[in-house]
Amino acid sequence: MKFLDQAKIYIFSGKGGHGCVSFRREKFIQYGGPNGGNGGKGGDVIVEAVDNLNTLIDYRFQQHIKAKNGRPGMGSSRSGAGGDDVIVKVPVGTQVLDEDREHVLADLTEAGQSIILARGGAGGRGNESFKSSTNRAPRQFDKGGEAEEMTLWLRLKLIADAGLIGLPNAGKSTLLTAVSRARPKIGDYPFTTLYPNLGVAQAGNQEIILADIPGLIEGAHEGAGLGDRFLGHVERCRALIHLVDGTADDVAADYRTVRGELRAYDAGLPDKLEFVCLNKCDALNDDLIAERRAELAAEAGCDVHVISGIAGKGLPNLLLLLAAAIRDGSVDASLDIGDDTTDDTTDDISDDGTDVAMEADANAGWQP
Ligand SMILES: Nc1nc2c(ncn2[C@@H]2O[C@H](COP(=O)(O)OP(=O)(O)OP(=O)(O)O)[C@@H](O)[C@H]2O)c(=O)[nH]1
Ligand SMILES: [Mg+2]
């Protein structure tokens, strides 16, 4: 299955059915009177968030979405049938935007949420409903209401607890693979990841949904590399895990580049809680780790976690801190179980006794 996070759709609601002009005429029966029925209402176009979808790919193939027209009224006081509604099913986290992509018309963040995008035209009145004490044989009727049509954009913003960001090759996909059952593509070349991946990691008894997005490079906000469009997928995250490749020559510069892109994108990303991690520490000796950690901490102005996605070092601690931060919206220092560099992944019980199994939900690995 392919991943698609935006789609343009054209929607048309149904027209209302016209009212009918008819008179009862039967042999030997006098005073037949008007009996034209009302037209049926046109169908609505409704958008609904559903659980079992995670891409908008369906709307690449089906861009025109039309609800049924209402049927006209008929003689013998028969009303026309209403047109069926159509339901545009989208993944949770989808936003509906107008044609110029400036205004968000709907933001569907929970399964089952639905909104009418285009209303069907009302059914027209038949001549029977115009009958009055002074007009016993009306020939009036109403036409059915007009349909609405519009061009809209659907934009999916994944709903994850934490987003993995960093330069290409920082080890984001490797980390996601280490802590969840997601199996994104991993490669020692930049831009291995071309679309976001989700995975569910377990920290104690709390599940954390992580989003791995394609790497950022300098100038991503101007379209360099894969651009910064995928940052939209971490907009809703409570926290960011910023991975810096520890084997790089200048870790501070790498950190600065990504922060610069976050600032250029904005949308609240620069203010998000950030876990700065010096990754790939398995490939470094202790002196180098200490040196680069200090460089990174000086640049970031916060504590730096020393981890290794491949060796699993420092990950249980990171997940616990993340879980606490997501729960409370802040970093809980009391959960810090000491120096990350000395963490051993074979320990799955932390100092405070919390179980830190890194197992994932069977359905967690989402691999489009
Ligand atoms: N030594 C070491 N290598 C690592 C570690 N994590 C990732 N790598 C290697 O770094 C390379 C890039 O890893 P990925 O996980 O694909 O990196 P990414 O950040 O997802 O890269 P993009 O998807 O291109 O942005 C691969 O060759 C990995 O094997 C680590 O902890 N230690
Ligand atoms: Mg990747």
CATH-level-4 superfamily name of the largest domain:
P-loop containing nucleotide triphosphate hydrolases
Which cofactor or ligand species appear? guanosine-5'-triphosphate, magnesium ion
Q: Do you know the CATH architecture of the largest domain? A: 3-Layer(aba) Sandwich
Question: Tell me about the biggest sheet?
Answer: 6 strands, mixed
Radius of gyration, CA atoms, in whole angstroms: 29 Å
Number of helices: 5
User: Poorly predicted ranges (pLDDT <50, ≥5 residues)?
Assistant: 331-368
| pLDDT averaged over residues | 83
Describe the secondary-structure layout.
Blueprint: E1 6-12, E2 45-50, H1 58-61, E3 64-66, E4 86-91, E5 94-97, E6 104-108, E7 114-118, E8 149-156, E9 162-166, H2 172-179, E10 197-203, E11 206-212, E12 239-245, H3 251-265, E13 273-279, H4 286-300, E14 304-306, H5 315-328
Parallel strand pairs: 1-3, 2-4, 9-11, 9-12, 12-13, 13-14
Antiparallel strand pairs: 1-8, 2-7, 5-6, 5-8, 10-11
The chain binds guanosine-5'-triphosphate and magnesium ion.
Would you mind describing this structure in some detail?
- This protein is of the alpha/beta class.
- It has 2 domains: 1-156, Spo0b-associated Gtp-binding Protein, Chain: A (Distorted Sandwich); 162-342, P-loop containing nucleotide triphosphate hydrolases (Rossmann fold), CATH 3.40.50.
- 15% of the residues lie in helices and 22% in strands.
- The chain is built from 5 helices and 14 strands.
- The strands form 3 sheets. The chain has a 6-stranded mixed beta sheet, sandwiched between helices. A 5-stranded mixed beta sheet has the order 3-1-8-5-6, with no helix packed on it. A 3-stranded mixed beta sheet has the order 4-2-7, with no helix packed on it.
- Helix 3 links the parallel strand 12 and strand 13.
- The longest helix is centred in the last third of the chain and has 15 residues, at 251-265.
- The protein is rod-shaped and about 110 Å long.
- The chain binds guanosine-5'-triphosphate and magnesium ion.
